[in-house]
Amino acid sequence: MNVEIRVQDTPLDAVAEIAPVYAGQASIGGVVSFIGLMRDMNQGDAVSTMKLEHYPGMTEKALAAIVDEAASRWDLAGVRLVHRVGEIRPQDPIVLVCVASAHRGEAFRACEFIIDYLKTRAPFWKREQTAEGKTRWVDSRGSDEAAAAAWEDSK
Amino acid sequence: MIRVLYFASLRERLSCSDETLEAVPATVTDLRAQLAGRGGIWHEVFADGQRVLAAVNQEMAGAGQALQDGDEVGFFPPVTGG
Questions:
Q1: ipTM
Q2: Architecture field, domain B2-76
């Protein structure tokens, strides 16, 4: 399996990251990508910028473990997982999950699994600045916990 | 000796990003109790009922996980990536 995992503080060109996941591998029949974008609103407030912090070292280990878990559940030909850190603005890609497989079903499920697990297991934290100039740490969501837990149940 | 790291909102609340402790607590639970025992904001952060996650040597750790000399312990709030 062709795996690339990166954490970067430079802009993420999500579309350019997709073709290398399947290029040159004629056995691949489907590629599924999820691109997470920064929104301009959160909890009713306009948000102007966001800063993403992480735990260097642990982040890379956690992402690799999530991809390994996906590869143990489904037959995958390639995975590319790229996550931003540093300062971002609305519409900037935060994360790209791209999964290639012989058939679409495995790629769809693995892609959703990876983003669901990343949301609750990878040590990233968002701090946003509202249009009024206030900064605040973004709260975790119960719905993300529920989505990750559902995969545990389906194991 | 263990290294303790604090991230995100915890780092800001505690005004501390990292420290080295000479004595090695037996478990993560013991370390939490020791930190809470400092009082003030440390008690607020580490006393029961607070959602503070722990990692030992950069892997998620349960409360009762044993600690050894040379370990790195990270404390942080629930994650919000993706």
A1: 0.94
A2: Roll (3.10)
